[in-house]
């Protein structure tokens, strides 16, 4: 981050608060940081090609959308099958997140994780049973871990606002999409 220009640092600071919900978010962001829409897109493309960023993702606050039941399903998939099973799970509409993690034996044999959200636990379990049948996972050991509590949901933070600059503090607290 130290080798970024001032406009690039400003771009990172704005991006980490989220994309504005407008028809041309990169144009809006560019206006905030003194870049054109094209410059913002080119910068993001360059950062992705250089490996500085892997992706831009969405943080969805499911609870506010009426999804009260959230389950992480953990799977003990044979290592030679985990990539294919993960691909099949990730293609399912009810799966909002799917990723691989190392096992922590002997206590934690699970190496594939996926998230399913629903209005209630019964619906999530119905989705899971349908998912197991569609993906042919009847023989794969798994556990369902329902969320008991919510934590603050936000994306990565790379640049903090300067706490000695009241303008920066105010900007860091601004609601994304608001001037």
- The average pLDDT value, as a whole number, equals 84
Number of strands: 4
Strand content range = 15-25%
Total domain modules: 2
Can you summarize the main beta sheet? 4 strands, antiparallel
Spans of at least 5 consecutive residues whose pLDDT stays below 50 are 163-179
SSE pattern, N- to C-terminal: HHHEHEEHEH
Indicate the CATH topology of the largest domain: Alpha-Beta Plaits
Structural class: alpha+beta
Main sheet: strand order: 2-3-1-4
Determine the fraction of residues in helical runs and give it as a percent range: 25-40%
Spatial extent as radius of gyration: 20 Å
Termini gap: 25 Å
Inertia-based shape: elongated
Account of the protein in words:
The longest helix is centred in the last third of the chain and has 15 residues. This protein starts with 5 loop residues before the first helix and ends in a 6-residue tail after the last helix. The protein is elongated. α1 crosses α2 and α2 packs across α3. The chain has 6 helices and 4 strands; from the N terminus they run αααβαββαβα. The C terminus is likely disordered. The protein is of the alpha+beta class. A 4-stranded antiparallel sheet has the order 2-3-1-4. The chain folds into 2 domains: 59 residues, Orthogonal Bundle (Arc Repressor Mutant, subunit A), CATH 1.10.10; 85 residues, Alpha-Beta Plaits (2-Layer Sandwich), CATH 3.30.70.
């Amino acid at each position: 981050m130290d080798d970024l220009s001032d406009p690039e640092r400003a771009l990172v600071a704005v991006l980490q608060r989220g994309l504005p919900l407008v028809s041309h978010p990169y144009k809006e962001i560019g206006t905030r940081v003194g870049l054109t829409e094209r410059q913002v897109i080119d910068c993001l493309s360059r950062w992705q090609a250089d490996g500085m960023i892997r992706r831009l993702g969405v943080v969805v606050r499911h609870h506010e959308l009426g999804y009260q039941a959230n389950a992480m399903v953990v799977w003990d998939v044979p290592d030679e099958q985990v990539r294919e099973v993960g691909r099949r799970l990730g293609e399912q509409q009810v799966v909002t997140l799917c990723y691989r993690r190392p096992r922590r034996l002997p206590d934690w044999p699970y190496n594939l994780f996926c998230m399913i959200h629903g209005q209630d636990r019964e619906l999530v379990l119905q989705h899971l049973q349908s998912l197991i049948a569609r993906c042919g996972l009847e023989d794969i050991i798994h556990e369902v871990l329902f969320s008991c509590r919510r934590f603050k949901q936000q994306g990565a933070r790379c640049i903090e606002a300067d706490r000695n600059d009241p303008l920066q503090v105010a900007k860091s607290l601004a609601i994304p999409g608001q001037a």
